[in-house]
């Protein structure tokens, strides 16, 4: 049965009066179980934010990275994901960076902008601004400062309110390593029924949870993205449609190759490539974090540079560790 849901929220227009993409694009989910209004399938780098030595956003360097990413077959870009250092940017900077990316990004590439804030009210407001700045979709992280109170009820209300008013489709973002909480499975399933919530980026890496979410939401217009490269192949095997992976800032082509191997069912080749990506991925994410991602970007010809304080550059020992995690899998 072809299911086409049309959201009756704030109206069909976005990005300078064009039809919003969730009404324009119709395609099948990876699991083949139904149609989707916004096709999220593919690989996205959550782009890093380059800074000048004075810690201002370096738009020239950002532009340089975008020119290089344009040559890689990404589905789109995530702007203001965890690796964009969004908690350290002002609201004005967050919107300006999205505008800058939109100016360079071809319209067939999806711009997913992080609009999550701590309060529902601020998230609703920033979501509107992100849509006006050219975001096709917003990525909304779980609020976490009062994490003891962020149960399924609070989070379901938060995301519902944001999705009710958002002019563009919403993707849920669960990243327990950074927030200290996971969006509960029951809440994800309930939220998947909202007509303006089109997917989840799950960075937790629990494959049985990802598989269960795909299974329990398959009747909905809802897609799951792996939130890190270390479990990309496993996530594809249980029905995820793509990945938002920090490592794509460095090894973007290779991650797109892994995507293509998984989608075409070449699992043996996929396994070999996936295995070589696990160690460098761990190094630029949970082991050494954003400073390591930015250092690795420099080695691979992109602009990484320093993080905004209080994030510190890697120590010498950490830099050696990072290098070894790339060389041992043959990437350097
Ligand atoms: O920066 C983000 O946003 C990510 O999703 C990165 C993710 O946490 C990863 O581990 O790749």
Enumerate the distinct ligands: the ligand O=C(O)C(=O)C[C@H](O)C(=O)O
Main sheet: strands, sense, barrel: 8 strands, parallel
Q: Structural class of the helix and strand makeup?
A: alpha/beta
Overall 3D form: globular
Write down the overall mean pLDDT: 91
Total individual domains: 1
Alpha-carbon Rg, integer: 18 Å
Roughly what percent helix? 40-55%
Protein name: 4-hydroxy-2-oxoglutarate aldolase, mitochondrial
Organism: Cyclopterus lumpus (Lumpsucker)
Active site: 173, 201
EC number: 4.1.3.16
SSE order and pairing:
Blueprint: E1 13-14, E2 18-19, H1 21-24, E3 27-28, E4 35-36, E5 42-44, H2 59-69, E6 76-79, H3 91-104, E7 110-114, H4 120-133, E8 137-141, H5 152-165, E9 170-174, H6 176-179, H7 185-191, E10 197-202, H8 207-216, E11 223-226, H9 232-237, E12 242-244, H10 252-263, H11 267-287, H12 289-299, H13 316-327
Parallel strand pairs: 5-12, 6-7, 7-8, 8-9, 9-10, 10-11, 11-12
Antiparallel strand pairs: 1-2, 3-4
Helix pairs in contact: 2-3, 3-4, 4-5, 5-7, 10-11, 11-12, 11-13
The structure holds ligand LPKSKP3X.
Ligand LPKSKP3X binds next to loops.
């Amino acid at each position: 049965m072809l299911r086409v849901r049309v959201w009756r929220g704030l109206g069909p227009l976005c990005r300078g009066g064009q039809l919003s993409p969730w009404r324009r694009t119709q395609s099948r989910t990876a699991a083949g179980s139904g149609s989707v209004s916004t096709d999220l399938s593919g690989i996205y780098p959550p782009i890093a934010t380059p800074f000048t030595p004075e810690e201002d956003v370096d738009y020239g360097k950002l532009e340089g990275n975008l020119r290089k990413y344009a040559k890689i077959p990404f589905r789109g870009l995530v702007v203001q994901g965890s690796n964009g250092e969004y908690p350290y940017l002002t609201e004005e900077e967050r919107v300006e960076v999205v505008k800058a990316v939109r100016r360079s990004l071809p319209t067939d590439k999806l711009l997913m902008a992080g609009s999550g804030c701590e309060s529902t009210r601020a998230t609703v407001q920033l979501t509107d601004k992100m849509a006006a700045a050219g975001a096709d979709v917003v990525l909304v992280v779980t609020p976490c400062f009062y994490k003891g109170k962020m149960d399924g009820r609070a989070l379901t209300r938060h995301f519902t309110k944001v999705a009710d008013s958002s002019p563009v489709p919403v993707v849920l973002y669960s990243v327990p390593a950074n927030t200290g909480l996971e969006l509960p499975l029951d809440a994800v399933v309930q939220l998947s029924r909202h007509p303006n919530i089109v997917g989840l980026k799950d960075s937790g890496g629990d494959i049985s949870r990802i598989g269960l979410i795909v299974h329990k939401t398959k009747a909905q217009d809802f897609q799951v993205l792996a939130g890190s490269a270390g479990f990309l192949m496993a996530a594809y095997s249980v029905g995820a449609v793509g990945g938002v992976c920090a490592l794509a800032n460095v090894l973007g082509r290779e991650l797109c190759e892994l995507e293509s191997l998984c989608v075409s069912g070449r699992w043996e080749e996929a396994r070999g490539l996936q295995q070589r990506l696990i160690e460098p991925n761990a190094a630029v994410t949970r082991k050494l974090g954003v400073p390591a991602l930015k250092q690795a970007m420099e080695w691979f010809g992109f602009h990484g540079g320093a993080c905004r304080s209080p994030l510190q550059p890697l120590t010498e020992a950490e830099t050696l560790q990072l290098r070894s995690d790339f060389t041992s899998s043959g990437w350097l």
